[in-house]
Amino acid sequence: MQQESQALPEAVRGFITPSSKKMLIGGKWVDAASGKTFITVNPATGQPLAQVAEGDAEDIERAVAAARKAFDDSPWTQMKPAERTRLLLRIADLIDQHRDELAQLETLDNGKVILESSNFDIPAAAETFRYYAGWPTKIYGETNPSDPAFFNYTLREPVGVCGQIIPWNFPLLMASWKLAPALACGNTVVLKPAEQTPLTALRLGELLLAAGVPEGVVNIVTGYGPTAGGALVNHPDVDKVAFTGSTEVGKEILRASAGNLKKVSLELGGKSPNIVFLDADQKDAAMGAFMGIFLNQGQVCCAGTRLFVEQKMYEEFTDALATTAGSIKQGPGLDKESRIGPLVSQEQFDRVLGYIDIGKKEGVQVKTGGEANQGGALGKGYFVKPTVLTGVKNDMRIAQEEIFGPVVSAIPFKDEEDVVRQANQTVYGLAAGVWTKDVSKAHRISRALRAGTVWVNCYNQLDPISPFGGYKQSGFGRELGRHSLDLYTQVKSVWLRV
Ligand code: NAP
Ligand code: MG
User: Is 307 inside a domain boundary?
Assistant: First the structure.
């Protein structure tokens, strides 16, 4: 911990000292009621990184009470919409101002390369707050064509106390996808970050207070899923739950939220097809296939994990992909030269290597990678080599189950009909990619694919202007764009006899 931290700026060092980081409840930084803490690990070294309060049911109780009070009985819900706009803009500016420091914290905690955290995660988080800053003054109700003896109109009101549970793959960005629309609509929040990556959420908590978010409006409770997360989704005073994570936990959350019929939105796993036709721009498609799977070490819910390649070019295309994947520089995220980093945890490291073994037993060929990358300068970091598997059939486990690592399963296809059928043969439906110069084919396939997002001649294009979410078991509800407003408001119809 000490050695690692010497080269880092003061702001980051302060965050990862051995003293434990507190959590944010009712505008105050507090220890867990139990006094317990837990250690987070630096994925690049496997060594302890920081010590964080381990919140559980008692802390969730306090946090929900603070959020309830802030919603029911504080100036927050009386704040003018234009004031909320200014508040969200201040948050966006503060994130920008602290970009380098937040990027370093994110890289230390998650492992992702600094190039990605500083050029994507952190600026995208700021842009999400900036985008939602525009909405408070544009959340309209309607007047309805009622019987003239009456006047009828609707109000769009906040839902109330929102429990938000986020994963470790894009920690700050996921916090912003959840917090920005919730605040724009006037809700209060209890946020539970993932146990692997709590640091940037806590730093964001400091920035929220600096921006002037009133006490109790955002509470951040660090802790484990089944205890802290479980207490939050079961709590009778929580009105809405927003969750991003695995499909398995998503199902548990739906069951647990039934007690008081919370409004639920779920952004879950994926096994997205990325489809390359012979008539595609080959250079673009090669880059798209590569970035589609290896961005963030493949720990992306919409990663293009099933790479469908037209039969006639299958060997050539996958050979070239394997050559690129084999030559990419893997190393610690803080090293500016690194282009692919370690996986987030020992658990993910074991899980991904386990799936590669399953693939080998299922009879696939390993074109490149297929093993850990440890020892020497990489030490005991959770590095797995970028892996290209060929000879994959769509019904194999590696093509059906979420691996969540730098592993692409390349599957050949005959024609349009064949690939649409195979691409849709999955329980998931989060995203899909299509590479072709034939515009009609692109549109036909975009309609035929059962997925919440389809990218044509691009991949992983994400922007707060456009909705994101899943078909089938990839969840329900759409985040981003104006669609988040539906998740964080409810409609009231008011009748008046005139
Ligand atoms: P996960 O268990 O679904 O975790 C996501 C979040 O839910 C975390 O904050 C987690 O807390 C919390 N959680 C876990 N169990 C809970 C419960 N019973 N009640 C309430 N909250 C709970 O994901 P994971 O274990 O980190 O990763 C497992 C797999 O999920 C990955 O390999 C990947 O396939 C998938 N995944 C998908 C996404 C996505 O963006 N769709 C993101 C991450 C992972 P803890 O931090 O304590 O676990
Ligand atoms: Mg888990």
Answer: yes
